[in-house]
Design brief:
The complex is a heterodimer of chains A (133) and B (94). By secondary structure, chain A is α+β, with helices and mostly antiparallel strands. Chain A is built from three helices and five strands, in the order E-H-H-E-E-H-E-E. Chain B has a five-stranded mixed beta sheet with strand order 1-2-3-4-5. The chains are: A alpha+beta (133), B alpha/beta (94). At the A-B interface, helix 1, helix 2 and helix 3 of A face helix 2 and helix 3 of B.
């Protein structure tokens, strides 16, 4: 399944709707579904935040590969934006030292089964894997 | 769909999907909280980092006056999210 959407927060509704239909059809388990929905939102909203000037559409793909779901976002006409190189977040900080923000990619990394990033000719692709059940 | 209601005992009830599209609505409601409050997650299906940011900002604000949010009826997926974000160390979760 693949879909192209405008790079804006309002596109989340359509991405969630299409992903939900895919998860239903493929009988993806609730735990995996929760992680994949969160990953979908975090990956997409980061593209919106950090490459807002591009008018190009963003492509989301969902596939089943053996016992795992593959979720990918392809961003066209973009600078390199590799979330696998983001610094680690210290989730054990006390409340007084914490600031809102930065948790999304941390959660995606911790709760998925792998993330890869490819970049070539100003096209960036982030691919995330999650076991189905 | 996302909604926030006030329960019969004054608790904040989160309903539906707390995603980045609804952050302004949530910020408006949580911005009015000035004292300790229970937040009921029993009708919440989903939360992502945008929602976590609102909870964290509110908890920090309340902590300055000795208050806190208490999170109740949290489902397994959201409990996992709280664990990996360390929220289980800075919130009381029932």
């Amino acid at each position: 399944m693949q879909i192209e959407v405008r790079k804006e927060i309002a596109s989340l509704s359509e991405l969630f709707r299409q992903a939900g239909e895919f998860f239903d059809e493929k009988e993806v388990g609730d735990d995996a579904r929760g992680v994949l929905e969160m990953a979908l939102e975090e990956l997409f909203t980061n593209l919106v935040k950090y490459n807002p000037d591009s008018e190009s559409l963003v492509m989301m793909c969902l596939e089943i590969d053996a016992d795992r779901v593959t979720l990918s976002f392809t961003d066209y006409d973009t600078d390199r934006f590799d979330i696998t190189e983001f610094p680690e977040v210290d989730a054990n900080q006390p409340l007084s030292d914490r600031t809102p923000g930065g948790l999304g990619i941390h959660l995606v990394k911790k709760m998925s089964d792998g993330i890869e990033y490819e970049y070539s000719n100003r096209v960036g692709k982030t691919t995330l894997y999650k076991r189905m059940n | 769909m996302f909604d926030i209601q006030i329960g019969t005992n004054g608790e904040v009830v989160l309903i539906g999907r707390f995603d980045a599209q609804h952050i302004d609505k949530a910020r408006e409601v949580f911005g009015t909280i000035e004292q300790s409050k229970v937040v009921d997650f029993s009708r919440l299906e989903y939360i992502a980092s945008a929602g976590l940011g609102i909870l964290l900002a509110t908890q920090k604000k309340l902590s300055e006056s000795g208050g806190a949010l208490k999170l109740t009826n949290v489902n397994k997926h959201i409990r996992d999210v709280f664990h990996f974000s360390g929220f289980d160390q800075i919130f009381e979760i029932e």
